[in-house]
Design brief:
- InterPro entries: AAA+_ATPase (IPR003593), ABC_transp_ATP-bind (IPR050319), ABC_transporter-like_ATP-bd (IPR003439), ABC_transporter-like_CS (IPR017871), Oligopep_ABC_C (IPR013563), P-loop_NTPase (IPR027417).
- It is found in: Cell inner membrane.
- One of its GO terms (cellular component) is plasma membrane.
- With 322 residues, the chain is of the alpha/beta class.
- It has a domain of 82 residues.
- It has ten helices and twelve strands.
- Helix 4 packs across helix 5 and helix 4 packs parallel to helix 6.
- Bound molecules: iron/sulfur cluster (SF4).
- The site of iron/sulfur cluster has 13 residues, from loops.
Length: 322
């Protein structure tokens, strides 16, 4: 297959002690071609982080299929599971808690190579220091401990630790959200450069921030209550959003854009609990254009808008921005 990451009808449900079930992910399908950078966006509670963690088998799936290249992620064991641990890497939001405080950063980056490859000695040392230097950490940093580094430097170490294994797939889970605003732009620059330096690296970028996704990604998938409600090429989704939820998210983006009419779509109320997903279209309780007798009873179809742009809404074909 020509997919690097293929997720099919993924469900991740967590039973609670009181008998309720959290439908964190409820039928997600998403395909990333080799070298593609795809953003997964949504509010907290949308299930976006659970999708990323399940793809790397850090969270067990309830149902569905996930493939990374030819590897069957949900059924991998033994040698395949070790291959998965090397080929697919994840960067978490908080670099501090991802690093062992008693390990120098040189050691932190070397560890994965020692565990997963046969590289040793000078070759290993050079690969480690080259990777750290490429991430903007010169040699005088390499024998320092995490507490001697800033938040941005620690996140660079985490990125180096992932890249040193030459992964095929990188999942980035809000990699700049825990950093100072002044440092976020630097790390975004590092990630932007990655696309040019490693064009074959496939990236799934999870964020609540649409502007960041627009800056870094080629395609975007918008999640709401465990489902992808809109998906397509970034520029197309930003200029011609078809789902009312995407329109609401975009109208919350502060930078006004030339040529785009001010969008008055506003979200009202809180996101419902994933233990009580509304019937019909799950967004109908907050949707400004919901139609009674349809949206609250009938799940919407997936409507194609051309060029791989799709939206899950009864009226997606009628949405116009101009
Ligand atoms: Fe709104 Fe109805 Fe579309 Fe759902 S299907 S997003 S409730 S208009």
């Amino acid at each position: 297959s020509d997919a690097m990451l293929a997720i099919r009808d993924l469900k991740v449900h967590f039973p609670l002690a009181n008998g309720q079930v959290v439908r964190a992910v409820d039928g997600v399908s998403l395909t990333l071609r080799p070298g593609e950078t795809v953003g997964l966006v949504g509010e907290s509670g949308s299930g976006k982080t659970t999708v990323g963690k399940t793809a790397l088998r850090l969270v067990p799936a309830t149902d569905g299929e996930i493939r990374i290249g030819d590897l069957d992620v949900l059924n991998a064991s033994g040698r395949d599971l070790r291959r998965l641990r090397r080929k697919a890497q994840i960067i978490f939001q908080d670099p501090h808690s991802s690093l062992n405080p008693r390990m120098t950063i040189r050691r932190a980056v070397a560890e994965g190579l020692i565990l997963n490859t046969s590289l040793r000695g000078r070759v290993l040392r050079e690969k480690v220091s080259d990777t750290l230097i490429a991430m903007g950490l010169p040699p005088q940093f390499h024998d320092r401990f995490p507490h001697e580094l800033s938040g941005g430097q620690k996140q660079r170490v985490c990125i180096a630790r992932a890249l040193v294994l030459d992964p095929d797939l990188l999942v980035l889970d809000e990699p700049t959200s825990a950093l100072d605003v002044s440092v976020q732009a630097q790390i975004l620059g590092v990630l932007k450069d990655l696309r040019a330096e490693r064009p074959s690296l496939t990236q799934l970028f999870i964020s609540h921030n649409l502007a960041v996704i627009r800056f870094l990604c080629q395609r975007v998938a918008v999640m709401y209550l465990g489902k992808i409600v809109e998906e397509g090429p970034v520029e197309q989704v930003f200029s011609d959003p078809r789902h009312p939820y995407t329109r609401a998210l975009l109208s919350a983006v502060p930078v006004p854009e030339a040529g785009r009419r001010p969008d008055r779509t506003r979200l009202t109320g809180d996101i419902p609990s994933p233990t009580a997903v509304p019937k019909g279209c799950a967004f109908h309780t907050r949707c400004p254009v919901a139609r009674k007798g349809l949206c609250d009873t009938t799940p919407p179809p997936q409507v194609a808008a051309g060029g791989g742009h799709v939206a899950l809404c009864h009226f997606a074909g009628e949405m116009q921005t101009t």
